[in-house]
Design goal:
231 residues, mainly alpha, 10 helices, elongated
């Protein structure tokens, strides 16, 4: 006897799923109608926020470009060896382009000019207001070294040593770490703390390979500091 053909599922078997979808769609439509004002407000805020973001990004890009161009022009004034004029222009430049990397570079240049003019407190004021972690960039380490020099010129030896040690411990580049440690060691010697100076010279020696002239120099300075400490 021939087997009857398999029964195919009737259309009524999909009805529960279709009903669930229709109910959800209807509920969503009702919710959207009730909250149309909220949805419109959210859409407007998204569009406005996106526009503001794009405008700000364009503004910052334009600001950085103008800062770079004007800084290049200002370098000519600095090179002309007219410090009072350069100082005034740098102060105005920093006010207009504050927050850009070029303004940060301008502050370091301004502090250097103040130091060259003998106005150490002005240099300290410029650098202290924007101190950052030394390891971020070579420019930040340079700023901290200048600050150490300004402190030392003002007779604030402990603050100067702290600045130099910040560079000696955290600067990204070895030549800056070496300069920081060496400057701190020299001040330690000048204040009569020969033991601390010898420790710093030992650190400096360890930065160079055995047999190098640099290592021999710092080992000699360490031995001299230790000898002065015993005398």
């Amino acid at each position: 006897m021939a087997k009857p053909p398999p029964r195919r599922p009737g259309p009524t078997q999909q009805a529960p799923a279709d009903d669930d979808f229709s109910e959800r769609a209807l509920a969503l439509s009702v919710w959207a109608q009730k909250n149309a004002r909220i949805l419109i407000t959210v859409a407007v805020l998204v569009v406005v926020g996106l526009g503001a973001f794009l405008y700000y990004r364009s503004y910052r890009a334009d600001l950085h470009e103008r800062a770079a161009i004007e800084y290049m022009q200002m370098e000519q004034t600095i090179a002309a060896a007219n410090p009072p004029v350069a100082i005034r222009e740098l102060e105005d430049y920093i006010d207009r382009f504050d927050g850009t990397p070029y303004a940060r570079e301008g502050r370091v240049t301004l502090a250097r000019l103040h130091l060259e003019e003998g106005n150490t407190q002005a240099a300290i004021d410029v650098l202290e207001g924007t101190r950052r972690r030394v390891g971020r960039s070579a420019l930040d380490a340079q700023a901290e070294l200048l600050l150490g020099g300004a402190y030392a010129a003002e007779g604030e030896v402990d603050s100067a040593i702290d600045s130099y040690l910040n560079v000696g411990r955290d600067a990204r580049y070895e030549y800056q770490r070496e300069e920081g440690l060496a400057s701190a060691a020299l001040l330690r010697e000048e204040t009569g703390d020969f033991g601390a100076a010898a420790d710093l010279y030992a650190e400096l020696a360890e930065m160079h390979p055995e047999g190098s002239s640099e290592r021999a120099l710092w080992e000699m300075r360490r031995a001299e500091a230790e000898a002065r400490g015993r005398s």
